[in-house]
Amino acid sequence: MEALGEAARGVLLTADPHAKRRAARGLARAWRRGALAHRCEGMLPDRPAWPDAPELLSPSQMPRRRKGGSERGRIAMLHALAHIEFVAIDLAVDLVGRFGGEFPRAFVDDWLGVAADEAMHFALLDRRLRALGSHYGALPAHAGLWEAAEATADDALARLAIVPMVLEARGLDVTPATVERFRATGDEASARILERIYRDEIRHVGAGTRWFEWLCRERGFEPAATWQSLVKSRFRGVLKPPFNDSARHHAGLTQEYYGVIAR
Prior knowledge:
263 residues; two-stranded parallel sheet; 2 strands
């Protein structure tokens, strides 16, 4: 029987975006039907395989997105979101393949479900881009999204603290306003896609928080103080308000975590 870690490696080494999303969903199906052994001892790549397009640029090189409701501006926003969801497929699969053996099977259930969600989100966004006359890869994208994975490749607790509980939680803060901007331009189709993603991301942040707290209990750590220490030592950015306290609380990420270190 193929090992979970080896199957995860196969997804990470798939470069074509649509082949990767299909592979991620196939990985989740294989796990659900019991076709994979719960073993993650294999080596994973430091960086996943990605396509030649989009061109990846540093934050300082990224074109500034125009404000307003022009179609060009909406395409640029949807493309940026599609890239986030594409990289999120690899983030979820890497989490399982790298650390899944340290956790109960329910952890793998949750995070392969997240990987399948991210694959679906990417497909929805790319389909919407095509309806608007564009596609994923047509514009440059942010090169720094994998940095959090590289900075936390040694420790599951750090990975959970930074990726779902900082990066995905930030999506909860900004998505409602983005939905309203699309809706104000009459782009109801894009607004509905982002609302679907938003609902799923609350669940993803919840899974991150729940398993972070589980691992803290296993190691005898106090969760909030441990999270604050990891954010200070492993996250290069800063936590800035405004926060969507309601959505964060629904996900279990209460102000006890982030309130004291926000700037």
